[in-house]
């Protein structure tokens, strides 16, 4: 077991947060069970990073609970750890995707000109057979064919539903070629700011985040190659809060920084302990909400909470249609979401349980549509790549998965980090829940 001294800031923040939640729960539990109140049990389910804990934070805010000073301090630590994780992820992705620092995607067709402006080094001699492969396919695939290992994954990725994102265009090939010619990961002529970050790559968590690291992060984030790498984040695992925190890294890393409600809503702490929160809906009714961890390894903890559930809010990040699954990079994230939804929706214990689906992260979905065609990942989608047609398509796909025709599926499109949008949806959901709960108890 990990002793306190060995914990990363993220783990420390998580442990302190769950202690604080436990304390709060004990208080709420006592309050909720006073008198003969009606308890409506609600589960928040869904895959990792779908937004369950964010919805719970919003429920707390709506209930006037706000965040305690201890929670605020924990979220500050979580934000710092989010920033460091994002920088580390991007540094690694620059090498995995073979993107050189300073790469300018707009100049992609002028590969050699771009090369000349980036590097004072003479062009390295290029092996012709390798070149022809690199110019016709993406590097990961090219490497697989060089090794004689052009496996099912790459073939599957083009035609079938739920394709996995792999850039394979002139820009990505130009990046790879320049990256190789500049000397790959080891020998690129890095600017000093990038050198600081790369040198401390493995130990950023232990570092004193002084002004020079903060400046280096600012420089790193403004690098055109890093921005291009960020634009391809559907090909690897990057937190959705990355841009929000890196756009203002200096402010968040300042020792006097105190997170706002929005900062806290954006902060990511992966759930590893099932939490129970009680909300008084009216004088006699308490909503008892369970928030679980959605990563595959966390799902074995769900079943003990399935008894007597009145409703499930199932979250799906609709923006995940072009992303790779966290736990299995050969799988599309939306397909993982849909499989998980089918297994919960059609679970015999939930035959009569109200199923409320939050198709979440509509803000990211909307932004993505301009550059990421749904049909590339879901060939059965033949409509316009618009918000209306995209949401209608996924809404139908989800509804079709329900095998109990007598059971209603309520679908909402949500933006969990936007307090006013989610409050209005949660208001409607409360009415449904109370109606259903009272009806089940013969009180309506
Ligand atoms: N832009 C945007 N970000 C969101 C939205 N909903 C959640 N997020 C962000 O997505 C990240 C993950 O959200 P969480 O609420 O932690 O996800 P979760 O489902 O609880 O994840 P697990 O605990 O791992 O199961 C956080 O950084 C949130 O701020 C949304 O609608 N829009
Ligand atoms: Mg969570």
From TrEMBL:
A GO molecular-function annotation: G-protein beta/gamma-subunit complex binding
Name the UniProt record assigns to this protein: Uncharacterized protein
UniProt cross-references to CDD domains, sorted A to Z: G-alpha
One BP annotation, GO: adenylate cyclase-modulating G protein-coupled receptor signaling pathway
Keyword Membrane attributed: no
Lineage summary: Eukaryota, Fungi, Fungi incertae sedis, Chytridiomycota, Chytridiomycota incertae sedis
InterPro entries in the record: Fungi_Gprotein_alpha, Gprotein_alpha_su, GproteinA_insert, P-loop_NTPase
PANTHER family with a match to the protein in the record: GTP-BINDING PROTEIN ALPHA SUBUNIT (PTHR10218), GUANINE NUCLEOTIDE-BINDING PROTEIN ALPHA-5 SUBUNIT (PTHR10218:SF302)
Cross-referenced Pfam families: G-alpha (PF00503)
